[in-house]
From TrEMBL:
Name assigned to this protein: Renalase, FAD-dependent amine oxidase
Domain Amine oxidase: 98-337
Keywords linked to the UniProt accession: FAD, Flavoprotein, Signal
Classification via InterPro entries: Amino_oxidase (IPR002937), FAD/NAD-bd_sf (IPR036188), RNLS (IPR040174)
GO cellular component: extracellular region
Molecular-function GO terms, alphabetical: oxidoreductase activity, acting on NAD(P)H
Record carries keyword Lipoprotein: no
């Protein structure tokens, strides 16, 4: 049985683990390492310190499916819908641009991270948090993988699903496998940056706006605001509401290295200008997204790039496709297809 490590417990990583389990049940033992302290990646859901039922999506807000992807990835949408993880978006949204006829939008009643957690449960993988991979190097017939402040472990195959700039920072044998034109391709990948601010309220608090989500044009700070429980159609008198504000890309770039406390003050000030009657929150969380959405993907990668065949080392994720649910599905499918032929 081959021991496979998936680095990153975001959407692509969890899908890879789940699909590996389903396609190669008796052939692989799956481990997932995540540097953060919870699953989700850019589909993370945060919880109020005072109310476990008050949550906010600080990353992806909803899932958008084109008619093409509803057809080609229909089994994924059907599975999540059958488990109550996806539900059609019915709440009012202001300023949303419809780019194509027949597009369908979905929300996650239990938060965006519930998608990732579902796939991790289905994978049966051994999942460890707080494990930041620093080195991947050859040892015997496989790979020795080192984490910051921890012991190294050996694996027969490694799948890297972290953002491309973090792949380029890995040490060990990885730099020698990424040379010449391949390095140029990976270094050409770029991401937008932004901040998200989550405001958590006590039960009974009213947020008096006529919409669930709204996009703002021309604001130098805020691009999007969501009243999260209203967005998900899960409002309840027993738990407090939450509100999420996402900044525009320009603000994120210009303030990327600023202390998060200072950024929180700036965003709160702008938010109060937009919504002057906004109640005082019980708590506030700010999240910096250095790698928010892919602007330029790896040219010609088709969802993955294999760095080494034997032992197997492959890169996947939205940097090799596109920053949405279907892009991550496509990458995971390509990674698992290559793995099946190699293990």
């Amino acid at each position: 049985m081959s021991r496979v490590l998936v680095v990153g417990a975001g959407l692509t990583g969890s899908l890879c683990a789940c699909l590996l389990r389903r396609e190669m049940l008796s052939k692989v033992q799956i481990t997932v390492w995540e540097k953060c302290h919870g699953a989700g990646g850019r589909m993370c859901t945060s919880t109020s310190p005072a109310d476990p039922n008050c949550t906010a999506d600080l990353g992806a807000q909803y899932v958008t499916a084109t008619p093409y992807h509803i057809e080609t990835h229909g089994s994924f949408y059907a599975e999540l819908s059958s488990h109550g993880i996806l539900r059609p978006l019915v709440a009012p949204v202001e300023g949303m641009a419809m780019k194509e006829e027949g597009i369908r939008n979905f929300v996650t009643p239990k938060g965006a991270s519930s998608i990732v957690k579902h796939y991790l449960r289905e994978s049966g993988a051994e999942v460890s948090f707080g494990r930041q991979v620093t080195h991947v190097q050859r040892k015997g017939p496989g790979w020795e993988v080192c984490v910051k402040g921890g012991q190294a472990e050996s694996f027969d195959a490694v799948v890297l699903t972290v953002p491309v700039p973090q792949i380029l920072q890995l040490r060990g044998d990885v730099p020698s496998l990424i040379e010449g034109s391949l390095r140029q391709k990976l270094e050409a990948v770029s991401y937008s940056s932004r901040y998200a601010l989550g405001l958590f309220y006590k039960a009974g608090t009213q947020i008096n706006v006529p919409w669930a989500m709204k996009y703002f044009e021309g604001n130098s700070c805020i691009r999007f605001i969501s009243v999260d429980d209203r967005k998900r159609d899960t409002e309840s008198p027993s738990s407090g509401p939450s509100l999420v504000a996402h900044t525009c890309v320009t603000f994120g770039l210009n303030h990327l290295e600023m202390a998060e406390g200072e950024v929180k003050t700036l965003i709160m000030a702008e938010l109060q200008k937009i919504l002057p009657c906004l109640p005082e929150p019980a708590s506030v969380e700010v999240r910096r997204w250095r790698y928010s959405q892919v602007v330029n993907v790896v040219d010609g990668s088709l969802g993955q790039i294999t760095l080494h065949l034997s032992p197997f080392l492959v890169c996947g994720g939205d940097g090799f496709t596109q920053s949405n649910f279907d892009g991550c599905i496509e990458s995971a499918l390509r990674v698992v297809e290559i793995l099946k032929s190699s293990l």
